[in-house]
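Support case: user asked for a sample of complex input and structure output to validate their parser. Sending the pair below.
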Amino acid sequence: MREVIAAPLAGLDLRQHYGHHQSPAVRAGGLIFCSGMLPVDPQTGERCHGTLTSEAHVILGNLKLLLESAGSSLDWLVQVHALIYDSLEYDVLNRVYRQYVANGPPARTVWTAQIEAGFKIQLDVVAAA
Amino acid sequence: MTEKLQRSAIEPKNPLLNASRNSNLPHVPGIRVGDYIFLSGMVPIDPQTGERSHGPIAEQVRVTLSNMRHMLESAGSSLERVLRVHVVLADISHMAEMDRVYREFFPVDPPARTAWSMQLRFGNGCEIECVALAG
Amino acid sequence: MRAKREVISLPVRAPDTASSSGQPVSMAVRGGDFLFVSGLTAVDLQSGERMQGTTASETRQILINLKQLLDAAGSSLDKVVKVNVLLHSMLEAPNMNEVYAHFFPDQPPARTVCGAHLPDGVKVIVECTALA
């Protein structure tokens, strides 16, 4: 069974705000596959450009909201792809990221990639449902 | 309502390959959840010393995939159980060399794969992750 | 019971695709509840010829092929749960997105898009995970 998870707050509906043809997350086979998470205001959907640290805080806050609305949580993350715009920010990423996964972090791979709208970070995650 | 899948961290029998712990990083070498094992990205580390193992790309890929084999076997799985691999190369021109070594590790019924190039840290020539079926 | 792994063999003859004799890659592998599909590039599945074009045209070819692969494997586009799109340039994201929307009209899968260095001048790679 495949179930689309709706955005818990309007700002997290990137399809509505930006025309991104994707659902916020899909539950199937006991797992939740999330669309790439971006630093947008969860109420308004407005882009929240900033430092990697500030963008990461917004993203992880949004992810927490999304997963909890689906009956999961950050503690149930299984795999994360952390996309950052420049590998020089690796230590900065770790410093903020570790605050959110203190209770047994998931598997992770960090990718240095070009992210939309000049954002510095995007998180692509799978969690247990 | 279906039962929640169990989630647990896996680690390599060879502690020198536990980059997560050795470098105090906020991840684990892999997570087992339900039928699956998701591994963190692996880079070329000498299993004898725990040091980065740089050299020609062929050797880097070989070391990385050998370590991946060890990681999966430590968790009761194996390379034959791998479902999908992501291969990231620092230099896209290394694809052919990577393929040459890669096929030694997956000679029959290879997994699904996506391979591309990105900037990698610490001079690593490759970073490889996979999803596998648990044992 | 131990979950089974199965390489999906597909009725295509495509020297340049993932399942060619050239590359040690299977196009799709089933394991547990899911089908894991390799990153696909724009090729003609019958001839194996590369179909180089714009990001939009390559996206279209890839998704046409994906539909065929999934159907042959007993799955379908509406069983796709997650898609990863790699673009040679994020400037092309809207062009990719416009084509992409036609293939997933209802309840689209989760998706992550990013820009990276792709092999052989390829403009777009699409990989996905679907329910088997």
